[in-house]
UniProtKB/TrEMBL annotation:
PANTHER family: RAPSYN-RELATED (PTHR10098). It comes from Spirulina subsalsa FACHB-351. Keywords: TPR repeat. The keyword Metal-binding does not apply. Signal peptide: none annotated. This is Tetratricopeptide repeat protein. The lineage of its organism: Bacteria, Bacillati, Cyanobacteriota, Cyanophyceae, Spirulinales. TPR repeats lie at residues 152-185, 316-349.
Length: 487
């Protein structure tokens, strides 16, 4: 295969200037003479001849031939070009070097590839503002060239960057812009692949908004597209999405099966970034199955791979996953330590979504350690950030926690304020068990505020829910009923 690539380069060593002869001779050596790597060679070792050839061609300032190396297919089964495949393997710095070397060197069409690749690189590193700037540069150039394919790819990249920053509305607008462009094109494998990818992205947005039916619809579209087009990368991501959805809707057994299929594909095609993400999700599944020791093992594997890849966003996610597992095991000091480490990385990345999750985990761990003052501080920070992100679910969680905390601190007016704010959202979205708990806390708060009518109202509504969905709360309700009737 390397020899055929050398033939494609059409290098005639007899008609080259002496100043560059050594560079082209090196290219010939790496592509035609160097021994094949051993069977157990890493992916990076397997493509070393291409990277060395690219380096020598760039030294000779032969940008046209360097671009041919960039777009060669190291794994024909995956049908992914070298520059993109490096990212799938997790060799981000090598990938970034290729793009920066070729940018502004050959022609605008090559620049669109480099800008898109740099945007994807920054997105993978959690540097979402830089990713947004790179994808915007790609979009502007693609529009100038009237490159429709480049435009929808750029819009998709912009959507990913907005999503990373927690700007879900802008992300959805960008994905829809990409979808509009695709729908106006004649169907072909590239456009169908694009539609499947965007379906997966829209599934993520619906998932964030807790619209799990819509998320599942989009994820199924993504899966069908991946399977129909025989695109394993799309298929594994769709399976991962469907697994996350099943975890959230309370079907961890179904989630486990989906993630195991996704894991098998990630291992088969050596997609280490996706493998790391799936290990993390499997940890969350075992957490939902109330198997914290197993969850801990999966999160530890995710952390080790994330550290090997050097991806801060994945490292932060794994650390927080370990924090959750330790919390479930009642190892609160270890949970606190891991949430703090995850928080530090999320702060550096300015990853608001990860930051929110880390602060919440830290609040719960410190609450369990009777560090109530700092726990309240972190939950207040969660509320501020969730409000900024217009994340009603996490704002409601913060209100519910703060309401209960201030109730225990006997600050009843503040407790009432937070609990009422939580109830407003929970009436439409929350589980009946959680709603029953909030009604009880509201009844208790109003009892201490001597608001008898409201106390009785919350007791009545909450007890009805508790009798059907949270019977462990019934004794608490009965006791409060008896006390309220005495006054």
């Amino acid at each position: 295969m390397n020899q055929s690539l050398f033939a494609q380069l059409e290098i005639d060593l007899t008609h080259l200037p002496l100043t560059h002869l050594s560079q082209y001779t090196a290219v010939q050596y790496f592509l035609t003479c160097q021994d094949d790597p051993p069977p157990n060679a890493t992916p990076l070792e397997q493509v070393k001849p291409y990277l060395e050839s690219f380096y020598h061609l760039s030294q000779a300032q032969d940008w046209r031939r360097a671009a041919i190396i960039l777009t060669t297919l190291p794994n024909p089964q995956l049908n992914e070009e070298l520059h993109y495949q490096l990212g799938l393997w997790g060799y981000w710095e090598e990938q970034k070097h290729l793009y920066n070397t070729l940018l502004h060197r050959l022609n605008p069409a090559c620049d669109t590839v480099c800008w898109n690749g740099l945007g994807n690189y920054y997105d993978a590193q959690g540097q979402y503002q830089q990713a947004q700037e790179a994808h915007q540069a790609h979009l502007t150039l693609a529009q100038t060239l009237q490159d429709i394919q480049g435009q929808w790819i750029a819009y998709t990249g912009l959507g990913n960057a907005y999503r990373g920053q927690g700007d879900w509305n802008s992300a959805e607008q960008a994905y829809q812009a990409a979808l509009t462009l695709l729908n106006n094109q004649d169907p072909n494998p590239k456009t169908q692949s694009g539609k499947a990818i965007i379906s997966g992205s829209l599934a993520r947005i619906a998932y964030h908004r807790q619209d799990y039916n819509r998320a599942q619809h989009y994820a199924q579209d993504c899966l069908r597209g991946g399977e129909t087009l025989n695109q394993p990368l799309i298929t594994m991501k769709a399976l991962h999405l469907l697994g996350d959805i099943q975890t959230q809707i309370g079907n961890p057994t179904a989630a486990l099966s989906l993630h195991q299929k996704s894991l098998a594909l990630a291992e088969q095609y050596n997609n280490r970034e996706h493998l790391c993400d799936t290990l993390h999700s499997l940890g969350l599944v075992y957490e939902a199955l109330d198997q914290p020791e197993t969850a801990l093992d999966w999160q530890q594997k995710s952390l080790e791979l994330a550290q090997e890849l050097g991806e801060p966003a994945l490292i932060s996610a794994a650390l927080q996953g370990l924090g959750r597992a330790y919390y479930q095991l009642n190892c609160f000091e270890q949970a606190q330590s891991h949430f703090k480490q995850g928080l530090e990385i999320a702060t550096t990345l300015q990853d608001q979504r990860s930051l929110l999750q880390a602060m919440r985990g830290l609040a719960y761990a410190e609450d369990a350690l009777d560090q109530l003052e700092t726990a309240l501080f972190w939950e207040e920070q969660c509320l501020t950030l969730a409000t900024l992100l217009e994340d009603e679910e996490n704002a409601a969680i913060a209100h519910a926690y703060l309401g209960y905390a201030y109730l225990n601190l006997e600050n009843y007016p503040l407790a009432l304020k937070h609990l009422e704010a939580a109830l407003k959202w929970q009436l439409n979205y929350e589980s009946p068990q959680q709603l029953a708990m909030t009604y009880f806390n509201l009844a208790t708060t109003c009892y201490h505020l001597k608001e008898k009518k409201r106390t009785q109202g919350f007791l009545k509504q909450g007890l009805r829910l508790a009798q059907r969905h949270a019977r462990h709360l019934i004794p608490l309700y009965r006791q409060l009923q008896q006390e309220s009737q005495k006054t």
